[in-house]
Amino acid sequence: MRAEDSGSSTPPVPTDRLTAAPGNVLRGMAMGVAEVVPGVSGGTVALVLGVYERLIDGAGHVVTALRLAVTGRWAAARAELRRAHWTTIVPVLAGMVVAVLIAARLLEPVIEDHPVGARAVFLGLVLVSIVVPARMVGRWAKQDVATAVLAAVAAFLLTGLPPAGDVDPPLLVVVLAAAVAICALVLPGVSGSFLLLTLGLYQPTLTAVNDRDLGYLGAFALGAALGLGLFVKALQVALRRHHALTLALMTGLMAGSLRALWPWQDEDRSLLAPDGGALPVFALVVGAGLAVAVVIAVQAHLERRAAAAAPAAQDRLGR
After folding, report:
1. Tens of pLDDT along 58-77?
2. What is the rounded distance in angstroms from the CA atom of residue 134 to the CA atom of residue 74?
């Protein structure tokens, strides 16, 4: 077992900038916008912004608390709830709700009217974001590389599936689709909106959000809760016991999912060659990638400052 695979289940406490409520609201808004955009993963955004592992760990405690409460073990359930990272979870969720409501109204016409440019921006964002989980793996072993390659191939094939036609789905189908799509929220590289699009439920879901269709939204929320309850604990255990391998899997999924963001595609998602206006499109890719690179560089700088300040703070406490 490698050193990075045997760490604590609780992620390290981040800097004040990461735990401040306003900053986490903004991070949640970024994740919410990403989840509305097909091909962009909210989990990827969480990774880039440095809150991914705290959210997964906190969600795992909440799921455990619910399971204990169902069996009548109330004291243990309350203890698990206290271990969840509420100073991160609550602001992030608040930001996500606000962003989803706004983005569902604003982004849909932009994506429909300018699909090539929109995909170009998203391609640049995700392409550079792959650096985040790749760096977190640390020293890549052979099994990490093999896992990443297999995950990339699987994601490439998945994102090439032709979309189903939009349908008026029964609520049971909505529950099942939400249970699958919500897993993408906690799995970087896989877009929940893309899965809904593949199932033919993307447009009905956006319409339900914009029209405040409580029946549809209630069924979706039920499916999301079921999906998280079944999936998040497994992911939490994987991050704790096989940290590097799990991050290698995420890196591969992100790389393979880039297929969905190639700017030139037809309605069946077949990839096309660049057209005569390719130069401005590639400029959007580069510009978006540079923006993410700046964010990653700032994040790395803050982490180095926090790491350098930690020993000094410990020395002061020890005096």
Report:
1. 888 888 888 888 888 888 88
2. 40
C-alpha closest to that of 122 among 189, 196, 213, 218: 189
What do you get for the CA distance between the two ends of the chain, in Å? 37
How far is the CA of 166 from the CAs of 11, 308, 314, in angstroms? 41, 53, 58
Residue 35, number of CB atoms within 10 A of its CB = 26
Whole-model pTM?
Answer: 0.63
Q: Copy the structure tokens of residue 310.
A: 């930690």
pLDDT one-digit tens code per residue, 239-287: 778 888 988 988 888 888 788 889 998 877 888 999 888 999 999 999 9
Task: Return the sign of the alpha-carbon dihedral for residues 241, 245, 247, 252.
Answer: negative
Gap between the Cα atoms of 56 and 45, Å rounded: 13
For residue 283, the model assigns a pLDDT of 95
Q: Is residue 37 helix, strand or coil? A: coil
Q: How many residues does the chain have?
A: 319
Supply φ then ψ for residue 262, to 5 degrees.
-60, 125
Which residues are CB-neighbours of 292 under 8 A, at least 6 positions away? 48, 124, 125, 128, 129
DSSP state, 163?
P
Q: Which residue, chain included where needed, has tokens 């979706």?
A: 220
Return the ∠ at Cα 132 (arms to 131 and 136), rounded to 5°. 110
Q: Within 13 A of 22's CA, how many CA atoms are on the CB side?
A: 1
Token output for 31: 């994740």
Whether the CA torsion 292, 297, 303, 306 is positive or negative: it is: negative
